[in-house]
Design a protein that fits this description.
The structure holds 2 protein chains of 2 kinds. Chain A has helices at 63-86, 99-102, 104-111, 133-151, 169-175, 212-218, 223-240, 263-274, 284-295; strands at 32-40, 92-95, 116-119, 157-158, 180-181, 191-192, 202-203, 246-253, 279-281. By secondary structure, chain A is an alpha/beta fold. Chain A has a single domain (24-295), classed as TIM Barrel, CATH 3.20.20.370. In chain A, helix 5 links the parallel strand 4 and strand 5. Chain A starts with 31 loop residues before the first strand and ends in a 12-residue tail after the last helix. By secondary structure, chain B is an alpha/beta fold. Chain B has a single domain (34-303), classed as Alpha-Beta Barrel (TIM Barrel). Chain B is 37% helix and 12% strand. Chain B has helices spanning 72-95, 108-111, 113-120, 143-158, 179-185, 221-227, 232-253, 264-267, 273-286, 296-303; strands at 39-47, 101-104, 126-128, 167-168, 190-191, 201-203, 210-212, 256-262, 291-293. In chain B, strands 1, 2, 3, 4, 5, 6, 7, 8 and 9 form a 9-stranded mixed sheet that branches. The longest helix of chain B is centred in the N-terminal third of the chain and has 24 residues, at 72-95. The termini of chain B are far apart. Classes of the chains: A alpha/beta, B alpha/beta. At the A-B interface, helix 1, helix 3 and helix 4 of A face helix 7 of B.
């Protein structure tokens, strides 16, 4: 069992070449399942120091990093929400669960739009690194319970906080009742993921390449170029989707995409994508549930434990 | 591993600190600017002194010297701003009848009296911008030292001009946990360091309330041009896009604020000054009907119900 090994090779899914796979079919003959995943995060000003990763590059109080993220909640959230409303997109929120307590007004706005809430840990300043398996289980269940209490629905998906993982992360999330992970970037179609409990579990393509924070902070793109790469990705995945259904995700952050000099590029990309007829505009949970129900045996990997 | 990593002491309604109250921009009572214009424009020019020698601070400000002593290349490039760049910027501001504020390193008062004399001849509002670009208000600074930087900066600027200096803009937009209290004690009534909003809000200190007039980091010239490495044309485009979005929101939801920050050592270069002219043309001429351009204190007064 690899779960107890500190440095095992990945055994979560079987290799499956992109060519000659069984055909994935989406509802109503759509070529592509398209979803937008706004990360709604809470970063703490003064988190405990995890020896494996520093929360902030500056000493306390790290005003620059903290305050721009706070901008996302204070200013950016409603701005992005208005654009998603305009193009008929229900967000699939990657949620720092403590935000249910800090900013319930944001949760209420999303809930009344029937958006999906999936778990992104408690805070984005709390990492999986260094936690024992019991502590990680407690953190994962705490986040799921908190979100379920706030919105009446247990989260189906998980993006580990700040993309920090252990060897147990996906097993623990599946055991806590999860259905899909956003943490794996190996494919443009859903993949069956093997967990130790053998519960049906799937990877739904999220994206780092189209993630606004990667585009703006790591790749330092001009806003209009970000809009352009989204359209290019769409054109390719839409064309390939004629042969077998693809998934496209735009992960966003309200402190990036909602800045007034950047929103237009995102809006134009959404207008372009939703202007195509064969796009299933959906949520992460719906992609996971539909895939497991209709293509469970086609998605690579097998049911059951990996051992 | 102890349970400290999964204990959450500030998990509660609102913020995880006591500096300000939580609220969303769109949920507040709408702000009305004079003449019912949808967008207020605040332009700041940061007039900075980067010393050639001195201890490196915990956090380096944007534009900090990076080479072993004597770092002539960066020192003189920054000094260019105070000899040449600022005069180019002033000329453009005057040509467009703009009302920028000037955030000034206190050390310049004794170092370059001719520059301060010229700045005192403008009608522009002044802000304290730290003693110099090594006096970073970051991390564990001795309280007395930090208090001295703040008080001396205010005194130095006020020795050059009769105008009130009530605003503060920390180098690198960073603060220690004491900065807000020290600012209030020195007589400052607002700071611009937290970039978490697009309208002014009340900032609490144990010495009494002050205002935060949020600057925009993401549209700061240094951020766009030297960190993101975007072109001058892209900078103009981004400012234009920001203004158009905020004007639209301002008409639909209530007054908005666009904050810009220019550095003489950057935008004052001959290949960049035209971008400043274009930005002023876009904002003050082409969108003059929709934009109310004013100094920070005037904006703060108008934003306060």
């Amino acid at each position: 069992m690899s779960g107890t090994t500190q440095h095992a090779e990945l055994a979560l899914y079987d290799y499956s070449p992109y060519e000659r796979r069984p055909k994935i079919e989406w509802p109503n003959g759509a070529r592509m399942a398209f979803w937008v995943a706004p990360n709604i995060e809470f970063y703490e000003l003064d988190p405990p120091i995890n020896p494996h990763r520093k929360p902030w590059p500056q000493p306390y109080p790290a005003v620059p990093g903290y305050s721009i993220r706070d901008y996302g909640n204070r200013v950016g959230h409603q701005r992005q929400m208005a654009v998603l409303d305009k193009y008929g997109v229900r967000g699939s929120i990657s949620l720092s669960a403590a935000l249910c307590e800090h900013h319930p007004e944001i949760i209420a706005l999303c809930a009344e739009r029937n958006w999906e809430f999936f778990s992104h840990g408690i805070y984005n300043t709390r990492y999986t690194y260094g936690l024992t398996e019991d502590q990680e289980r407690e953190m994962i269940e705490d986040a799921m319970d908190t979100i379920e209490r706030a919105v009446g629905q247990r989260p189906a998906g998980y993006l580990a906080p700040a993309l920090s993982h252990s060897n147990h992360t996906i097993d623990l999330f599946a055991e806590a009742g999860g259905l899909y992970t956003c943490d794996l970037f190996h494919d443009d179609q859903p993949t069956r993921v093997k967990t130790r409990s053998g519960k049906p579990f799937i990877s739904v393509p999220y994206s780092l390449e189209l993630n606004d924070t990667i585009a703006y902070v790591v790749q330092k793109m001009e806003p209009r170029r970000y809009g352009e790469i989204i359209r290019r990705a769409f054109d390719q995945l839409y064309a390939e989707g004629a042969e077998s259904g693809t998934v496209m995700c735009i992960p966003t952050h309200n402190y990036q995409v909602s800045c007034p000099h950047r929103l237009r590029a995102f809006e134009e990309a959404l207008e372009y994508i939703t202007g195509h007829s064969d796009v299933w505009v959906t949520t992460g949970r719906e992609i996971a549930e539909y895939s497991l129900a209709n293509h469970g045996d086609l998605l690579g990997g097998r049911d059951g434990a990996s051992a | 591993m102890s349970d400290e990593l999964i204990i959450y002491r500030q998990r509660r309604y609102g913020m995880d600190h006591d500096r300000y109250d939580w609220s969303m921009l769109q949920d507040r009572a709408p702000v009305r600017w004079p003449d019912d214009k949808p967008l207020a424009l605040w332009i700041n020019i940061s007039v900075q002194h980067f010393p050639l020698s001195g201890n490196k601070p915990t956090v380096a400000p944007p534009g900090a010297l990076t080479m072993p002593y004597p770092d002539l290349r960066h020192y003189t490039l920054r000094d260019y701003g105070n000899r040449v760049g600022i005069y180019r910027l002033l000329k453009v501001m005057e040509a467009y009848q703009a009302s920028p504020s000037l955030a000034i390193s206190g050390a310049l008062a004794e170092r370059y009296p001719l520059l301060l004399e010229r700045l005192a001849q403008t009608p522009y509002e002044w802000l304290g911008h730290g003693w110099n670009m090594l006096s970073m208000h970051a991390g564990e600074i001795d309280l007395e030292i930090e208090a001295g930087w703040i008080a001396e900066t205010r005194a130095a600027l006020q020795s050059c001009s009769d105008r009130a200096v009530n605003g503060w803009f920390s180098p690198g937009r960073i603060q220690t946990c004491h900065t807000p209290e020290l600012l209030v004690k020195s007589g400052f009534t607002y700071h611009c360091d937290w970039v978490n909003d697009e309208l002014p809000y009340t900032f609490k200190t144990t010495e009494g309330d002050m205002s935060c007039l949020p600057s925009s980091l993401e549209l700061d010239d240094v951020f766009v041009l030297t960190q993101n490495l975007h072109s001058e044309d892209s900078f103009v485009q981004q400012v234009t896009d920001a203004a158009d979005l905020l004007i639209r929101e301002g008409r639909e939801q209530g007054g908005r604020l666009l904050s810009l920050n220019f550095h003489p050592w950057l935008m004052g270069q001959p290949h960049r000054i035209r971008a400043v002219e274009e930005i002023l043309k876009v904002l003050l001429v082409e969108r003059g009907d929709a934009i109310w351009h004013a100094p920070p204190t005037t904006i703060l007064t108008a934003a306060t119900p």
